[in-house]
């Protein structure tokens, strides 16, 4: 029995005990790292460190940006990976911004109502994504993109004293755009623009603490 056959036998023994591990592959590990960064983000939010929380949230977004690309290149696109990806997206891109709002911007109806709308739209978008056929384009703005926009808005309100309605409008607009029929190619120039914009924002956030 050669080395590969031994590894396969050992893996089969493990998956009989822990069947979920049959889904263990590189893309799913990358997706799971997004959850890890999200949890670390929550840790920094609990400590009141918005700067580090945003950095960790950005890293979670990076994991989401590359897991699908890696899955397509390795031909490891699975229904399990798709479900895990949407669950992680809901946690990092919907729940965490809501935590930021309550923790940093208070409970004014001016922000709470748009935030609730954003949450519902994010939930429905992700659920719809799971039951529709995967194509070459997204229908509507992806949840991680919406997360980046509302996070920038929260940062501007907290750090630079922008009016609260600035964040409210960002949540409302992103909610509508997530459930819209705007076509966006899964991998195109807008990804580069988004990545560069997010990277520039992260550099700004990091330097703001120096």
Q: From the 3D structure, determine the CATH topology.
A: Four Helix Bundle (Hemerythrin (Met), subunit A)
CATH superfamily: CDP-alcohol phosphotransferase transmembrane (TM) domain
Q: How much of the polypeptide forms β-strand, as a percent range?
A: under 5%
Stretches where pLDDT is under 50 for at least 5 consecutive residues are none
Q: What summary fits the major beta sheet?
A: 2 strands, antiparallel
Number of domains: 1
Q: Which outline best applies?
A: globular
User: Please, how many helices?
Assistant: 8
Biggest β-sheet: strands ordered side by side in the sheet:
1-2
On the 0 to 100 scale, the average pLDDT is: 85
Kindly, what is the distance between the CA atoms of the first and last residues, rounded to a whole number of angstroms?
A: 58 Å
SS class: mainly alpha
Radius of gyration: 19 Å
The tally of strands reads 2
Q: What are the SSEs and their pairings?
A:
Blueprint: H1 3-17, H2 26-46, H3 50-73, H4 79-105, H5 109-131, E1 137-139, H6 143-160, H7 164-178, E2 183-185, H8 189-208
Antiparallel strand pairs: 1-2
List key phrases describing it:
210 residues, single chain, mainly alpha
Could you explain how this protein is built, in words?
The chain is mainly alpha-helical and 210 residues long. It has a single domain (3-208), classed as Four Helix Bundle (Hemerythrin (Met), subunit A). Helices cover 78% and strands 3% of the residues. The chain contains eight helices and two strands, in the order αααααβααβα. It has a two-stranded antiparallel sheet. α4 packs parallel to α6 and α5 runs parallel beside α7 (164-178).
